[in-house]
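In the current project phase, the collection of sequences with tokenised folds has grown. A representative record is quoted in full directly below:
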Amino acid sequence: DQLIRSFYDRLVIKQLGARVLTDLNGNIQIPKQASSAKAEWLPEGATPQGSAITTAQIGMSPKRVATFVDYTRQLLLQSSVDVEKLIEDDLKKAVAIAFDFIALFGEGTANEPLGIMNIKNLQTVAMTGPLTLDDIIELETIVSEANAYGDRMGYLTNASVRGYLKTLTESANSSDKIWKLGANGDGVINGTKAMVSQIIPKTKTLSPILYGDWSQLLIGEWGPVFLKSNPYIGQSAGIVRIDVEQNADVARRHDESFAVIKAADTSVYPEWHTRWLGEGSSPAPRRGRPSPG
């Protein structure tokens, strides 16, 4: 394959453990237990107060994601690679990236699913200074206090945060870095799987960190990705169009299964952070990001 392909944002949502519901038909309602029974200790002959178990519904309906690419018949004739296969692969990748992005950042409009970052009562850790291990552990604490700890716990962030955590020690008295190497080239933070994708945006020096049980994230698919070649739309100009679309939706079984740091600052280190320096090298300012030494 002599083709030089484009770089893409890494796909991570399914790898983190999101559940995929395939071959759906019509709108669906998934029943959810909203409260549970409670028992009480009583003296002999006393009557318990009793409990009420309430239920709710998680609704999912098909929403359309689509795009297209035009190319010339001349390109098809002159190219030494399979242009049509290249375009189809690129379109499929575009839909997959759209899935990951919308699961995280969807605004919940009529045409767009609601993503984790826009949950109404999203659990957050507010930053008051440089990012430390304590802030990250607070994410774990928030989710655990909601009894939402599950089988697919994981962190998700971008390369800037990973680079920062690879150089930051766990504490002033430790030489262990916060971000450690895990299986398959992924990371480990505090014993938990951590993944990186540039789908997670960086605004100047601020980046989100998401944590949660990713098995609570649901991706519904109403059929597979649909590709269609249209040789007629630009026939007189020698143009062929390939369309792609899919109908899908995103939901969560429990919003409490996720917590985030919305703006982790990776430009400043904690006061106690130091680095080993080579002979003759100058240390970086205490509150500035160190230069390579």
About this structure: Residues 283-293 have pLDDT under 50 and may be disordered.
